[in-house]
Each structure stands twice: as structure tokens, then as C-alpha cells.
Design goal:
- It is built from 17 helices and no strands.
- It is an all-alpha fold.
- It is globular and about 50 Å long.
Length: 285
């Protein structure tokens, strides 16, 4: 029975990564397929299929750069049902909430009944962000001591990270990085929050996200593109994020070498960003 459950979980995880390419493939039906899109898909496939839950979470987080395509949503719903790792479930819920798509509400409402307080809390925050009364009611109960927000299911370090991802400061940083998104594409919120909540990348992401607001200044953007080659992985990862969200297909090739970056924080975002810019390029044709 355990082996069967593990097989189903691995199948659903793999299906999520395969779904990442369904939208772009349809857009390119009348033209040649970029082989590097397949490479990007394979990188994400390996990430969400990893036995390391932190790696799975990072791959899902990076997917927020692509968008809420129906196939991606369906597989995220499936992962939320089957994945047993609490931080991974919290990341999935936060990613679903970041899409701001009313279609995710039923799945979040179901997660609000999860037996793990951290999962309930994540669902409540996502529902509140979608202006759903259940989310507000749950948060009020937490405030009044009627609901638990944390438990022993997550280590103290991961609980701290989970709390950081929902602070006003990091949410604001995510919104700053969000300004350039096009309809139908992901906001990248969870990718931004992941960078701004990680002590190792917090400083770099703060600087880069702030500078990215000057999107009409060619000098600033030249510096941000140059930061893709920085020696610090945190700077490279943040630069990949803002370059992807700039939605300029001419920058697509700049992300290609970073798909081979030794740091998964960089390579996953570069893969998702490459797919995103591929979609943008074909939307403009």
C-alpha cells in the first residue's frame, strides 16, 4: 500500500512538470518548437520529482513565474492532496494564492480543513488575499486564540521561514517585482517572496527588486541584465526573476546558460523564466 501511494505521488509530481509545457506547446503549434524549452521543462521535471522536499518546494515556487495555466493548476491541486511534506504543501498553497485566480478557491477552502495548523494558516492567508470570508474568519480566530497557527509538524527554522514569507516587508517586495506581469502569465510572487525571505538572498533581492521599478531607465536595466553573471548566486537568482518578469523576449537567450547554474535557486528560475519569455514571444506573433 505504501509503495502504491509513493508511486501515485511521484506520478502526480511528474505530471505537474509535464504540464508546464502544455501552454507553450499549443502556442507554438504552427511553428518550430524551441529545443531549449524542452530543456527547461526537464529541469523543472527533475526538480518537482526530487526526493528532497525543499527541492520540490523550490521548483513549485519557481513555477509562479510561468502562470496559472489550467494544466498547472490541476497538478498543483493534485500535489496538495498527496504530498505529505508540510512545507511543500504550504508552498503549493501560497503559489496557488499568488495567482489571484478565483478558480483556486475551492482547493484552498478544502486545505483550510487540513489537520496541520501550518497548512490551515497558509490556506487562510491565501483565501484572505482572495477576499474570501473564510480566510478572514480563520485569521480572526487565530488573533483571538481560538485557532492554532503552528505545531510540531514543522521545525522551528521552517516555521520562522513560513512566517517570514507572509510579513508585510516581503510581501511588498513581491509586489514590487510583480509590476511587469502580462495577463495570463504568473505574477512571480512566490518566487519573489522566496528570495526576499531567505537570509542568504534577502539583501540582494531587496536591491534588485527596488531598482527594477525603474523599468524605463536603460542604464538600470543594463545593470540588471549584467547581474545575471554576478559571482553571487543570490544576485543571479534575483536578476533572473526581474528579467523574466520584464517580459522582453529579446532577453530569452540571456537566461539560457543559467539553466545550467549549479545553484537550484538560479537554475529553476531560469528554466521557468525561459518558458515564460517563450510564451511572451509567441503571444506577440
Amino acid at each position: 500500500m505504501i509503495g502504491s501511494q509513493q508511486f501515485r505521488t511521484k506520478f502526480l509530481v511528474a505530471a505537474l512538470a509535464i504540464a508546464f509545457l502544455c501552454g507553450p506547446a499549443a502556442l507554438a503549434a504552427d511553428g518550430p518548437t524551441d529545443p531549449n524549452v524542452q530543456k527547461a521543462k526537464d529541469i523543472l521535471l527533475k526538480g518537482v520529482g526530487s526526493g528532497n522536499p525543499d527541492t520540490r518546494s523550490l521548483a513549485v515556487m519557481s513555477a509562479s513565474l510561468i502562470g496559472d495555466r489550467s494544466e498547472v493548476l490541476n497538478k498543483l491541486y493534485s500535489m496538495l492532496e498527496t504530498d505529505k511534506d508540510v512545507p511543500t504543501k504550504v508552498t503549493i498553497i501560497a503559489t496557488l494564492g499568488s495567482f489571484k485566480n478565483p478558480a483556486v478557491i475551492p482547493s484552498l477552502q478544502k486545505a483550510l480543513k487540513d489537520p496541520v495548523p501550518e497548512v490551515e494558516m497558509a490556506a487562510a492567508l491565501a483565501l484572505y488575499g482572495l477576499k474570501q470570508p473564510e480566510g478572514k474568519a480563520f485569521l480572526m480566530d487565530v488573533l483571538q486564540g481560538k485557532q492554532k497557527a503552528t505545531s510540531g509538524f514543522m521545525s522551528s527554522e521552517k516555521r520562522s521561514l513560513a512566517r517570514m514569507t507572509h510579513t508585510p516587508t516581503t510581501t511588498l517586495l513581491g509586489m514590487v517585482a510583480n509590476e511587469f506581469t502580462l495577463p495570463g502569465l504568473g505574477s512571480g510572487m512566490e518566487s519573489a517572496v522566496g528570495l526576499s525571505a531567505d537570509p542568504a538572498s534577502m539583501a540582494s533581492s531587496s536591491v534588485i527588486f527596488s531598482l527594477a521599478k525603474d523599468k524605463d531607465d536603460p542604464t538600470v536595466w543594463a545593470a540588471l541584465v549584467a547581474a545575471l553573471g554576478d559571482k553571487e548566486w543570490a544576485t543571479r537568482a534575483a536578476a533572473v526573476h526581474v528579467v523574466a518578469l520584464h517580459d522582453d523576449p529579446t532577453l530569452q537567450d540571456k537566461l539560457l546558460p543559467l539553466m545550467d547554474d549549479k545553484k537550484e535557486q538560479v537554475s529553476f528560475r531560469a528554466a521557468a523564466g525561459y518558458i515564460r519569455l517563450y510564451i511572451v514571444a509567441h503571444k506577440s506573433q
